[in-house]
Amino acid sequence: MLKLPIYLDNNATTPLDPRVLEAMMPYLTEVFGNAASRNHPFGWAAEEAVDYAREQIASLINCDPKEIIFTSGATESDNLGIKGVFEMYAQKGNHIITATTEHKAVLDTCKHIEKLGGRVTYLPVNEEGLISLADLEAAMTPQTVLVTIMYGNNETGTIQPIREIAAIAHKHGALFMTDGTQAVGKIPVDVIADGIDLMAFTAHKMYGPKGVGALYVRRKNPRVKVTAQMDGGGHERGMRSGTLNVPGIVGLGKACELARLEMAADTARLSALRDKLERELLTLEESYVNGSREHRLPHVTNISFKYVEGEGLMMGVKDLAVSSGSACTSASLEPSYVLKALGLSDDLAHSSLRFGLSRFTTEEQIDYAINHVKEAVTKLREMSPLWEMFKEGIDLSKIEWAEH
Amino acid sequence: MAYSDKVIDHYSNPRNVGTLDKSKKNVGTGLVGAPECGDVMRLQIEVDETTNTITDAKFKTFGCGSAIASSSLATEWLKGKTVDEALAIDNMEIVEELALPPVKIHCSVLAEDAIKSAINDYRVKNGMPALEESKSHH
Predict the structure, then answer these.
(1) Do residues A212 and A270 share a domain?
(2) Which residue in B4, B29, B37 has the most chain A C-beta atoms within 10 A of its own C-beta, making it the best mutation to test that interface?
(3) Rounded Cα distance, B94 and B81, in Å
(4) Which DSSP letter does residue B135 get?
(5) Is A75 annotated as a binding residue?
(6) Nearest CA in chain A to B66
(7) A398 — contact with chain B (CB < 8 Å)?
(8) Residue B136 pLDDT more than 50?
(9) How much of chain A, in percent, has pLDDT values that exceed 70?
(10) Which UniProt keywords apply (chain B) (predicted)?
(11) Would you say residue A400 lies in a domain?
(12) For an interface test with B, which of A314, A315, A328, A377 has the most B Cβ atoms less than 10 Å from its Cβ?
């Protein structure tokens, strides 16, 4: 029997893989030691588990285990990377380059940097959600210390040309950081080949637990350092103080190991399901995929259904747990800034749904989702005066609406 | 956001969805709202000119569940009322009936505007003076 509602919001968070939970259990129970306790077996066991997790993570992203700094999640990693570089390299310059479609953890951190007297360039994106390399090149200055561009976008799945971006940053003597939250564990990410100097990622987007993430910080060619944003016992080579979350770290390690072993199979299966979902939903007239279809994470699609209002649509697809381009949980109905940056009008941004599939998504669930969305969109359009006017050939942009 | 049972009922089983022939002299049409704001309501009434009674009402709405429910409820209330009675419908009655939360009050305001706009269209079509804006909501 199909259990409702169906969870298709895996860009928000993924369920914990039972194998990850199993790996974590001993560290939530009998192996409770503090990894920083150097003088008894309880501490040694915890430290050993953390070191093993570092190796599991390092194998996934092709780095040295010592280059992993554990944090509470990607938001903290983004903060530590950006603020840490800004402070550490203040002698060199005060300019940071990012993009308008970044996650708030990056954008709001950059806003903070501006308050501290830093200068930030926010690169625009094209209708596919990609930045222009020429824009990046033009924005680079001798004062640029950091270029931070996300790997895969959380709303559309659009993958930026990471290697080319890294090369431009390096050519001008700047560091390159990426928010790899949605990409790590989903597609091959290789910090050496990609030229990444710092990378934020988190466990709970790849079937690990919430509350644990990491910042990759390159140790050679060049040796990168960040100023600690959390002061205390000097853990994590002095870059992030605080007792390590041993069970969480073990979970992140196990999640990375599973991702490394199963990525190819997961990708093949999920992209086929995603393509089926997308193909079927695009049979609805006036439906559009948002973001690049060529450069995209394999498990994500974001589709707008014109002439249907977003909040009404969310109510109509109540059997699905999905995200909409409207932040309609708050009092104000704000369309997604990411979709707006792609050039979507407010109404198209509002009427979008984001589907994020996971390792646990089944074909039966996708088939149900297809029918459910089709029914909801069709029903709402039958009820929509805009759809009727569109069908009569009336140009809606020529109407003088009574704005309210 | 949690919707009331009545909103869910109107959303799931909307009453009187449809279109009346706007070329008919005894049909009044009101189109209010704007796509960028996320709500557009079209409400139509058909009036028996001898009794001044609304014999039919239809709506189509682009909007959230509360907007759909407000217009659906409005058409239910309009049928059988005289035009003057219809003019007296206040948005707060819709708020109460549907238990709309404060952030959704604008949906009821839009429904009231749609009613007034449809009546106005009917009046103008039949040689009566247009109504003055009795309330300013905006």
Answers:
(1) no
(2) B37
(3) 16
(4) -
(5) yes
(6) A312
(7) no
(8) no
(9) 97
(10) Iron, Iron-sulfur, Metal-binding
(11) no
(12) A315
**pTM of model > 0.95:** no
Based on the fold, state whether residues A234 and A290 are members of the same structural domain: no
Do A137 and A159 lie in a common domain?
yes
User: What is the SS3 assignment for A99?
Assistant: strand
DSSP string, A245-304: -HHHHHHHHHHHHHHHHHHHHHHHHHHHHHHHHHHHHTTSTTEEE-S-SSSB-TTEEEEE
Does the complex come out with an ipTM higher than 0.85? yes
**What's the number of domains chain A is made of?**
2
| Contact across the interface for A311 and B65, Cβ inside 8 Å | yes
Catalytic, A256? Answer no
Q: Which of B37, B92, B99, B130 is catalytic?
A: B37
Task: Indicate whether A194 and A279 sit together in one domain.
Answer: no
The confidence score (pLDDT) of residue A329 equals 44
Q: Which pLDDT band holds residue A401 (cuts at 50, 70, 90)?
A: confident
Q: Are residues A289 and A151 in the same domain?
A: no
Active site residue B37: yes
Range of the domain at A90: 18-259
Inter-chain CB proximity B11 and A311 less than 8 Å = no
Residue A134 maps to a domain? yes
CATH number for position A373: 3.90.1150.10
Mind listing the pLDDT tens digit for each residue in A138-150? 999 999 999 999 9
Q: Give dist(CA A387, CA A396) in Å, integer.
A: 10
How far is the CA of A195 from the CAs of A149, A159, A170, in angstroms? 13, 15, 9
My answer on whether A223 and A270 are in the same domain is: no
| Mean pLDDT score of chain A | 95
